[in-house]
Amino acid sequence: MVTDLVQLGAGAAGPPAELIFGDWYPALRARELRVGKMTKAMLLGVPLVLGRKKDGKIFAMRDLCPHRGIPLSAGWFDGETVQCKYHGWRFEPCSGQCVEIPSLTQFETLDPTKIYAGAYPCEERDGYAWVYLPEPGTGRVGDALPAVPELPKFSQRFRSAHLVADLPCNVDHGIIGLMDPAHGPFVHQAWWWRSRASIHEKEKHFEPIPQGFRMSAHAPSGNSAPYKLLGVYGEPITTTIDFVLPNRRYETIRCGDKWFSSLTTVTPVTPSTCRIDVIAAWNIFYAVPFVTSIATFFGARFVRQDQQTMIEQAEGLRFHPGLMLIDDADKPAKWYFGLKQARLKGSGEHPLSGPVTLHWRS
Ligand code: FES
Ligand SMILES: [Fe+2]
What we know:
Elements: E1 2-4, E2 23-29, E3 38-43, E4 46-52, E5 58-62, E6 76-77, E7 82-83, E8 90-91, E9 98-100, E10 119-120, E11 122-125, E12 128-133, E13 159-167, H1 171-178, H2 184-187, E14 201-209, E15 212-218, H3 225-230, E16 238-244, E17 248-255, E18 258-270, E19 273-282, H4 291-317, H5 331-345, E20 356-361
Parallel strand pairs: 1-13
Antiparallel strand pairs: 2-12, 3-4, 4-5, 5-10, 6-7, 7-8, 8-9, 11-12, 13-19, 14-15, 14-20, 15-16, 16-17, 17-18, 18-19
Helix pairs in contact: 1-5
């Protein structure tokens, strides 16, 4: 199931954020990549051209010819090599290696295979084309890359769905909006979910994990209808939510051998805009028809509510207002900024020295 939410125009972008390079980001759904076709994408302000070779392997090149900078996507791809439209240089797209310069004659000694176009590690996982974007200026990427992110699954058989929405704000606002517990009763009001009147005090336990933090396993909030629905299986329900740099939120709900798992990423498209992707899988109600469409419908509504809020927020952010982070509901946002700064500085510090309990009403 695919649901594309409203596409946004570029004009309304707010202030930029600093970006984390040297990690994997989802560029697009891999099914869009067909043999012989080139598809453009933008990640962290880097123009990309992606495609699928005849052998099924997908690739992501920097969409700029190393000769004179014309986008390679303006040229041709025959399923084996990408050819530039301007002077016909040909490149093997997974390595970026130039394999032919048509203008060369026997009198020249230039070896085309010494020339490389930008090409990034690119892997298919959970239906996404994940692209590893190295630090700018670090040249070609070695082999020691972090693992490609993956949605955890707990059985062989499951259903899955994904959602995507463009957000007109920078990645920091996208991420802190994602981990913000206090907006739920206001942004996500609905009879089937919860109402403002259901706000009550909560106590949540957090602990540090590498590059992030975990909201420890707990019985999910009793005031949300979908969780009540899960109770039909009669076993205790536990939820774990992990946030991991640069942009990943993993949520796992387990109840006996039933499970629901989601991976939400907020990916910088440019320094001032981002995109939210949600991939979810579950074996709950496996046998019930239409559950995927129903889940996608409600999930889409949820993401649409966040998107609409951030569109409105972007209107305000254009005026560069001062912003506040308050305790405890904004603590996770503070940890995110702490983790990000530590990562950018390479300091290895962690904003949490041990388990922490937070309280808020939502
Ligand atoms: S600009 Fe690409 S081959 Fe000349
Ligand atoms: Fe939300």
